[in-house]
Amino acid sequence: MKSFRNDYSALCHEKVLKKLIEIKDEQNVGYGEDIHTKRAKELICEKLGVERDIYFISGGTLTNSTVISSILRPYEAVICVESGHINVHETGIVEGNGHKILTIKGLDGKIVLDEVDEILKNHMPVHTVLPRMIYISQATEIGSVYSKEELINLYNYCKKNNLLLYLDGARLSSGMAASNITFKDLAKYTDVFYIGATKCGGYLGEAVVFNNKEIANHFEYCQKRFGALLAKGFLTAIPFEVLMDKDLYLSIGKEENRLAMYLQDEMKRLGYKFFSDSKTNQIFPIVDYDTYLKLEKEFGVELWSNLDNNLVVIRFVCGFETKMEDCIDVIKFLKM
Q1: Residue 312 in 3-state DSSP?
Q2: The model scores a pTM over 0.70
Q3: Buried b (16+ CB within 10 A) or exposed e, 151-172
Q4: How does pLDDT run across 43-70, given as a tens digit for each residue?
Q5: Which of 136, 142, 200, 312 has the smallest count of CB within 10 Å of its CB?
């Protein structure tokens, strides 16, 4: 059965697997001091157009918790939308590490600066936490994306209000493919971001990129302290050595989006409504509960939220391994 539950169910892209097989008998230096880590950093910097401090971590939750904890002081807080990954899907790790999350409703899964203004206005020195960071993701949790213009506006707002801008790139390939934001834009208009491989053809791996040197000082100490520095550090870098070569990373995102948009368009033709107007590899149709059960059994979709009148929001996710015939099978099934 082809599963649409997420984009990390399959092991890795065939080119990544081929690379692993090629180097299976190698002996590498540990803790990121190896040739593969060096090469992966070089390839990423080529994409960014500038030299940057880059660190490789195994997964998204560990990346978010380590990055945020390394930057913020105990009394400093991070602002994000209510649906933000750090607020909903990371088991309270950010707040467990001592950094309060200040949430806003946002719009279409994205930050609304008027709502951030209210948080800043209501800050009471000494007696309340100090807002210090805005957290966003590209793509968002509901499949929307920030445009370059929105990113620049956010970044300028942060500079004006002494805030840091952190971009979660777990699905960056899909998010970039659906927007006009480039790697060079990310290097210029964020303080720190990461490039996700776990959800884009890697067996694991996220590449943290610090653009703001003032907050990058001694990050490796925090990385080690949080258990995010692997002895076999080359394992976290090898996926990027492959995915960053030529245009493979973005081409994966483009194909994922193309297939997801096919599914979304065809389901709309069948009369289905959608929870959000996604442009990325995640789509969120609204179906009755019985239809969800049938789809879950046949295609491994995920229940996203419950609505009224026996209706639910479900999620289809297209991954690097998804094929057009898989999507056609879904539409044929719905027509039965």
Answers
A1: strand
A2: yes
A3: beebbebbeeeebbbbbbbbbb
A4: 999 999 999 999 999 999 999 999 999 9
A5: 312
Running DSSP on this structure, what letter comes out for residue 110?
B
H-helix or E-strand spanning residue 103: strand 101-104
Return the residue matching tokens 């506006």. Answer: 153
Task: Count CB neighbours of 265 within 10 A.
Answer: 11
Helix (H) or strand (E) run with residue 286 in it: strand 285-288
pLDDT of residue 336: 83
CATH 3.90.1150.10 assigned to domain 248-335? The reply is yes
Q: Residue 198: CA atoms inside 13 Å, Cβ hemisphere, count? A: 18
Please give the DSSP secondary-structure letter assigned to residue 2. Answer: -
Domain ranges of the chain: 14-243, 248-335
Among the listed residues 256, 233, 228, the one whose alpha carbon sits nearest the alpha carbon of residue 322: 256
86 Cβ neighbours under 8 A, 6+ residues apart? 64, 68, 78, 80, 93, 94, 101, 135, 168
List the helix and strand counts (H, then E) for the chain: 14, 12
Q: What is the CATH number of domain 14-243?
A: 3.40.640.10
pLDDT tens-digit readout, 123-178: 989 999 999 999 999 999 999 999 999 999 999 999 999 999 999 999 999 999 99
Those residues whose C-beta lies under 8 Å from the C-beta of residue 204, and which sit 6 or more positions away, are 58, 59, 197, 198, 235, 236, 239
Which residue type, as a one-letter code, is found at position 24?
K
